[in-house]
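ENTRY TYPE: paired fold submission
RECORD: A
CONTENT: sequence, then structure tokens
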Amino acid sequence: MAALHHEAARDAGDVRERVLVLLKQHGWNATSFQILQPGFLYWFAEEGDACIAYVDTGGAWVAGGGPIAAPERVSAVVEGFHQAARSAGRRVGFFATEARFSRLVPFQELPIGEQPVWDPAKWDAVVRGSRSLREQLRRARAHGVRVREVPAEVMETPGHPLREAVEVLAEHWLASRRMATMGFLVGLAPDAFARERRAFVAEVEGRVVGFLSVTPVYARDGWFLQDLLRERSAPNGTAETLVDAAMRAAAANGRRYVTLGLAPLAGPVRPWLRFARAVGRPLFDFEGLRSFKAKFRPDAWVPLFLSHPKDEPAAWAVYDALRAFARGSLVRFGLVTLLRRPRFFVRTLTALLIPWTVLLALPMNAHWFPSPWVQHGWVAFDVGLVAGLLVLMRRWRDGLATLLGRLTTADACLTLVQALAYNAARARGPGDWGVIVASVLAPATASAMLLRSRDLRVPEH
């Protein structure tokens, strides 16, 4: 019924132009325009009237939103895509679908958050009814923040001073994120298909301090306020002023639908996802993001789902979606994230080192050491290391991080010497060798991560 068409890299531009034609006819999902960004593959129905944009994680094809298709064709297009994926030995999942998809396709849906929506014609009433929002707008004006729309030709012109200023702002914004840079539906490419977008900059005395990229939601005659960026030094109210300008422009252009996109894990999600939200708070401010969007008093909060076949577990679908956002490797993504937020790593290292030190001090473990004074020396060393980590966790200092990194390097080297000279000859089976290897690798890994995180960490305020 359907055919899979993988286009060569040289034809990527032509393929996206073909997708754009379909988007202008059937682009209903809030995130539909994002599928034009690099990194997506496209599956086209053999009739040529529909497509699905997806990322191949190696185990699954994860689609960005629902199909780009007429409503009456959605079910058949999904079935064709599903069959093609199974033929390729892949699972399927659809990330950020809305209730319409669930009504048309017999898939299981897992709530993953909510997105706020507005009718921009009511925006004046929102501002009048929110004292805090009016105060933020007033503060921005008082500090000289001015917002203007950026012509599409500026964003399409490499080397243009304003585009370069936006690119620098984007670099600073990405560097300030707690997590490693993600892909899939959250890639940052404000110059892609600029002629189809709207863009606004916030300036103070001619210096760009904020930027907002707006993408169309064609089939809903709406806008998605996608990339909202601000410099750390931008005056209070800069982000609110950008949103205000976009809302007023949307109303002036007769739009009837505006969204700020997904607030992940907000709303009535499953208990295990609420647990993930709590555990992940040091790395991503879920509550803060929802509160920021809520301050604009949306007309409604619309639930978004991760949709997957009923015969495939939800856990697999979540895993596949995470891999799509992590650009394939969750391990690499996690390590880079830890290096950017080293306090989280230091907290984990300290929590592991304390029970390890207690175990070292127990008389029953004296056989691991050549003599009692060596055992006591290692215990004293680890107690000092724990103390240093606690100080570093309370207040990060590059010099202390360097010192602790060098101490853990010395720990790894001395442990290796002891292991070769004393423990290896006395090892009795896989359990003993496991302890020896862990004793050497653990401080070596800690040293490398402490020294690397010193260079890559994101300043915390």
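RECORD: B
CONTENT: sequence, then structure tokens
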Amino acid sequence: MEEGNNSGVTKFELHSLPGPQELQLFYFAFFTLFYLSIVLGNLLIVVTIISDPVLHTPMYFLLSNLSLIDLCLSTFSTPKMIVDFLMEHKTISFEGCMTQIFFQHVFGGGEMMLLVAMAYDRYVAICRPLHYVAIMSVQKCTGLVVGSWVIGVLHSGSQLFFIVNLPFCGPNKVDSFFCDLPLVVKLACTDTYVLQILLLSYSIVMAVCSFVLLMISYSVILVTVRRRSSAGMAKARGTLTAHVTVVILFFGPSIFIYSWPSDNFPVDKVLSIFYTVFTPLLNPLIYALRNKEVISAMQKLKSRLVSS
């Protein structure tokens, strides 16, 4: 990173949402409330699952880790964006920019793998119920979670390896509220066309393959359940609807941003905000607050806190 920092650029200028000072203050208040909701909502889910023995199952173990990753995914850029609404000059250091890129892909790649792990859990629970306890053991669940984080780190590290020592000697304006990989690579003072294609293809292939794998697994589950009772079909359909909704909300914006060929497409900034700010709040709402067991556990937790 020191070599990259010696190339001339010591900081990057970020472009947040446009508007006069009054509108910037509104953005500050709005996104502050949203971020607090993300933190409190996801922490509540993690604490609820940890505190209630009834929820100590593979499905809820994976769900608590999803909430943890969602919390991290929103934290890598949202607080900086909120503070920048009050700043006239929105800048970030070279090291801070590289750090944002690293953690964006760590948490993004980790969440992709965790969603695949959750789909696998549902496949085993519905298609092989008699073997569920043996297959989804504590060791297997821990391995799936650790594997998700490891893949996220490897995915991010391989991306950062190619860009950290690029020469940045002039342009330093990033048209986003955080250092997004394709936008930063374009600022390098060298021909990065091949590198851009390589990095974007890597991210797109990983996202698309994960998305297709998830859709295939859910389709297999639905076909399997259809052969059983209508009551089981209704319950499974409700669970899978929540899973598919989260998958589409998470993968849709990221695939679109990294595959859209045009420069300066204004929707990209909106989708980036949706991906890093809104999705981490929607996930607990879709997964947890529609779940009767989680709601019941939250009520128990509330009763214990009140009585104590």
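NOTES ON RECORD B: Residues 2-303 form a domain with the Rhopdopsin 7-helix transmembrane proteins fold (CATH 1.20.1070.10). The chain has one domain: 2-303.
STATUS: closed
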